[in-house]
Amino acid sequence: MTTEPEQTRVRQVRPKTEGWSQKKDDAGRPLLQFASPKRGKPPVHMADLTPEQRVEKVKELGLPGFRAKQLEKHYFTHWTHDPADMTDLPAEGRDEFVHGMLPPLLTEVRRLETDRGDTIKFLWKLHDGALVESVLMRYPGRITLCVSSQAGCGMNCPFCATGQAGLTRNMSSAEIVEQVVRANRLIADGGLGGKKKDDHSAERVSNIVFMGMGEPLANYARVMQAVRVMTDKTHGLGMSARGITVSTVGLAPAITKLSNEDIPVTFALSLHAPDDELRDELIPVNSRWKVDEVLDAARAYFDKTKRRVSIEYALIKDMNDHGWRADLLGDKLNERGRGWVHVNPIPLNPTPGSIWTASEVSVQNEFVRRLEAKGIPTTLRDTRGKEIDGACGQLVATEEDEAVAAVTPLEV
Ligand code: SAH
């Protein structure tokens, strides 16, 4: 019989970075990019502005302020930016006016479908050629859009394809919102398959997850303006805040800031390891904000908003899927109280060049069982879109994407 502690008996794969080399800073640590590289800014769009600023801009363009309201209706309710649809606006100068308020922001480059049309991945080109993706998914009774908040990502997590590519730039609020508007337009045109006869839910995006490219809390102000527009019932998309999930790698000060906003979005923390020893390697930003600090910030989010927090945990074979880690995670969550959190394990999705794989099913089940035994509600995430590289952590512009994008003219 062995007397060794369980930790030393199990196989422990370390997050070494086979197949690619992680970008390093001058001190040899994994590079973290918080600041957006300087690039030409996208044109200012109505969705970047507050309702008051929109009225000002309309006046600058030579029309009376009330035209802003009409434009809001076209864009946020009918999901159009085509002047031809806007016959309630004066015909003379209409094209220039609409173009000035709603400049084109996203050019569709590619669209990939799977799950018999229930899941669609869009590849968009931004005004400066930067590429981003969004993923639209129909579920019974709801339609979820996974949006990008940055072109690329500066957080450098070795198991995530987006992180490996580095940060190109922050997206503007309107570039974020436009992903939703374009998805709604496609749904209204019947482009999303799979609607069941007995499904009477509205045919538009009902849920948004900030789980596409980028670290939303590293682009805080623009993401928050986008969320305000998404939830504004009179001047925006009128969605419910609880249907919007902001997922973060764990920028503790920004989590605290988010707790103090008046918009109770659903909050998700990508933890992936309950011990700093492993998390330091798996999530480079853990060098700044440690496991206990981000868990405290997450708990404080619950205290402020009374919204149950999600902990995301990618299950990577022999790396972070050990029974003792499930126990430690359960203990760390319970130390901070009961009923405030649930855990969402996600079997790792493969990324190019990585040798890591998802945990075995029996290991996944054991991980869930141990958390549940400690009273933590736990649901394995059903990931969608693996076949089209549209699942969590798989969003990155491939060489093929770049080639198609290069020959796709920008919308003007
Ligand atoms: N930057 C944000 C949101 C982007 S990713 C964040 O880190 O939370 C959304 C989720 O997918 C995160 O929990 C992320 O850690 C997870 N993820 C990344 N790569 C993955 C992979 N290869 N397999 C499964 N999940 C992955």
Q: How would you describe this structure in keywords?
A:
412 residues, alpha/beta, DNA polymerase, domain 1, TIM Barrel, 2 domains, 9-stranded mixed β-sheet, two-stranded antiparallel ribbon, globular, binds S-adenosyl-L-homocysteine
Give the topology.
Elements: H1 6-9, H2 51-60, H3 67-77, H4 94-101, E1 107-114, E2 119-125, E3 131-139, E4 142-146, E5 150-152, H5 161-165, E6 167-170, H6 173-188, E7 207-210, H7 220-231, E8 244-248, H8 252-259, E9 266-270, H9 276-282, H10 291-305, E10 309-315, H11 323-335, E11 341-347, H12 361-373, H13 399-406
Parallel strand pairs: 4-7, 7-8, 8-9, 9-10, 10-11
Antiparallel strand pairs: 1-2, 2-3, 3-4, 5-6
Helix pairs in contact: 6-7, 8-10, 11-12
Bound molecules: S-adenosyl-L-homocysteine (SAH).
Residues 159-160, 211, 215, 247-249, 270, 312, 314, 346, 348-349, 351, 392-393 line the site of S-adenosyl-L-homocysteine (SAH).
Subcellular location: Cytoplasm
Organism: Microbacterium aoyamense
Family: Belongs to the radical SAM superfamily. RlmN family.
Order of helices and strands: HHHHEEEEEHEHEHEHEHHEHEHH
Gyration radius, to the nearest Å?
22 Å
Percent of residues in beta strands? 15-25%
Any idea of the CATH topology of the largest domain?
TIM Barrel
For the record, the CATH class of the largest domain is Alpha Beta
Which superfamily, in CATH terms, is the homologous superfamily of the largest domain?
A: Aldolase class I
Largest sheet: number of strands, sense, barrel closure: 9 strands, mixed
The average pLDDT is 93
